[in-house]
TrEMBL record:
Chemical reaction(s) catalysed: ATP + H2O + polyamine-[polyamine-binding protein]Side 1 = ADP + phosphate + polyamineSide 2 + [polyamine-binding protein]Side 1
The keyword Membrane belongs to this UniProt entry's keyword annotation: yes
Keyword rRNA-binding assigned: no
Similarity field: Belongs to the ABC transporter superfamily. Spermidine/putrescine importer (TC 3.A.1.11.1) family.
Domain of life: Bacteria
Protein name: Spermidine/putrescine import ATP-binding protein PotA
ABC transporter domain segment(s): 6-236
EC number: 7.6.2.11
Assembly and oligomerization: The complex is composed of two ATP-binding proteins (PotA), two transmembrane proteins (PotB and PotC) and a solute-binding protein (PotD).
Job of this protein: Part of the ABC transporter complex PotABCD involved in spermidine/putrescine import. Responsible for energy coupling to the transport system.
Keyword line: ATP-binding, Cell membrane, Membrane, Nucleotide-binding, Translocase, Transport
Length: 240
């Protein structure tokens, strides 16, 4: 497998006069768990949306393995996406929700059955495959969304506040589960959060965002022990 690397090269993004990402560069290595951490409105989601291909940068380039993402067809980008609002189809079962992206791509029935079983197993939902979303807890619904993002076995998973709607206990359990999946599958994960403790527990590296720029990037330990500015010290020191 080629060594996947994601590179944001001097990315800016403006909406009208509002510059929400400001000349930002960031490299993410294969298999890394990187959190984008910062206050609301600091540009984290916008950066993720550009990587997902849902938004275009105003300037700069995003490269995967050295190739501009705009030159890559969707399946070569090799990414799964999970949002806070799980957006499951209420009238479909768990298995049907997870199968949906495969059906859209015209995958054969036998392969769909096999992939859905495998991915439900990964997120420990085998026994709930015939239920509908309304019959599941918030944590279980979030697992379905995760399963759906993993069904193509992507190398990269983008997550935008995926645990934001869960209560504390469930959230902590899911943090461990996602981290375990990351380790087991060797996934590259880019994880948006405004929760300091979540970023500190889960990440290999944290990029602390402030007004569309990275104020500091480093290991959780380095960010926590050696904040390089008052902004980072105060933001990390805040409790939720
Ligand atoms: P974060 O994820 O850090 O909370 P966002 O990337 O969502 O920040 O937003 C950064 C800024 O960009 C905010 O001020 C937001 O209102 C603005 N913004 C995001 N998307 C749009 C859009 N489609 N049109 C106009 N402004 C937007």
């Amino acid at each position: 497998m080629a060594n996947l690397r994601i590179r944001f090269d001097r990315i800016s993004k403006s909406y009208g006069n509002l510059r929400v990402v400001d000349d930002l560069s960031l490299d993410i290595a294969e298999g890394e768990f990187v959190s984008l951490l910062g206050p609301s409105g600091s540009g984290k989601t916008t950066l993720l949306m550009m990587l997902a291909g849902f938004e275009q940068p105003s300037s700069g380039a995003i490269l995967i393995d050295g190739q501009p993402i705009n030159d890559l067809p969707a399946h070569r980008r090799d990414m799964g996406v999970v949002f806070q609002s799980y957006a499951l189809f209420p009238h479909m079962t768990v298995a049907e929700n997870v199968a949906f992206p495969l059906q859209m791509r015209g995958t054969g029935r036998a392969e769909i059955r096999e992939r859905v079983a495998r991915v439900l197993d990964m997120v420990q939902l085998q026994t709930l495959s015939d239920r509908r979303p309304a019959q599941l807890s918030g944590g279980q619904q979030q697992r379905v969304a995760l399963a759906r993002a993993l069904v193509f076995e992507p190398r990269v998973v983008l997550m935008d506040e995926p645990l934001g709607a869960l209560d504390k206990q469930l959230r902590e359990q899911m943090q461990l589960d996602i981290r375990a999946l990351h380790n087991r599958l060797g996934l590259t994960i880019v994880f948006v959060t405004h929760d300091q403790s979540e970023a500190l527990t889960m990440s290999d590296r944290i990029a602390v965002f402030n007004r569309g720029r990275i104020a500091q990037i480093g290991s959780p330990r380095a960010i926590y022990d050696e904040p390089r500015s008052r902004f980072v010290a105060e933001f990390i020191g805040e409790t939720n």
